[in-house]
Amino acid sequence: TKSVTKDIQWITGEDFTVERGKEQIEELISTWEVHESWLYWSEFLREEELKDSKRYHYRVCWSVPTRRKPIPRATASIYFVIEISKIKPATSPVEVFFTLESSRLIHRPEQCRFREKWLKDIIENKLILMER
């Protein structure tokens, strides 16, 4: 059995910055098995203050531009959250999880293997809706 994902050494709460969080998400994505035709860009969305933690929200937007259609008709977004506990020591690593647009299921990088099919399904569903 192949390992779920290459282990990422997640940054600690005390060393976290918004930019470093974005870099770590991109480091995680670089371990995913997706065809080279997929391109993505990422952005920081917002900070959320909770009772026991702080959450930092990011979006990674995927598409497959082609020579004929350099501007894709549809994109697929993955929403990442980096959570810093206010209870655990500041030297503890951050928690990371993500959801796919159109889904409520929460994925944890260390517990699941990313599938390119998820991106394809989102885009196919959007194109079907557009044609209706």
From TrEMBL:
Keywords: Kinase, Transferase. This is A-kinase anchor protein 14. One of its GO terms (molecular function) is protein kinase A regulatory subunit binding. It comes from Calypte anna (Anna's hummingbird). InterPro entries: AKAP (IPR053084), AKAP_28 (IPR025663). Pfam families: AKAP28. The keyword Kinase applies. GO terms for cellular component: cAMP-dependent protein kinase complex. Signal peptide: none annotated.
